[in-house]
Amino acid sequence: MEYFDSSFATVQYDEQTGAVIGELREFVKGESFREYMDAIIEAIADQSATKVIADTSSFDAALTEDDQVWSVQDWAPRAEDAGLETMALVMPESILAKMSVDKIIEMTEDEITRKVFSDREAAERWIQAQ
What we know:
Blueprint: E1 2-5, E2 9-14, E3 19-24, H1 30-47, E4 51-55, H2 65-82, E5 86-90, H3 95-107, E6 113-117, H4 120-129
Parallel strand pairs: 3-4, 4-5, 5-6
Antiparallel strand pairs: 1-2, 2-3
Helix pairs in contact: 1-2, 2-3
């Protein structure tokens, strides 16, 4: 089931993995980034999902400082409240993009289990085992 579909990102629920899958394909910031992220929370709540695969492998730029702070202070607590327990992150190849994702992981203080992967298949296998 699709929750978000645009040129820069998609969000869907995948029955095979039992996870919400968010795929961020290109640089986006501000309101557009937040709409994408909020669609992940909507899918978590709608599907009573506890797992997310965040595929940022095609993302090619660093998130803005504002979006990083928003992800940590606003989005992560709401995602956890919606039921998120486990997140597999498929890391971007871009060094700048990877650094911004690493920074968000480092700054976030919650009970969500996170693991990083270099490819989506490995992330899917791990998330199915959780």
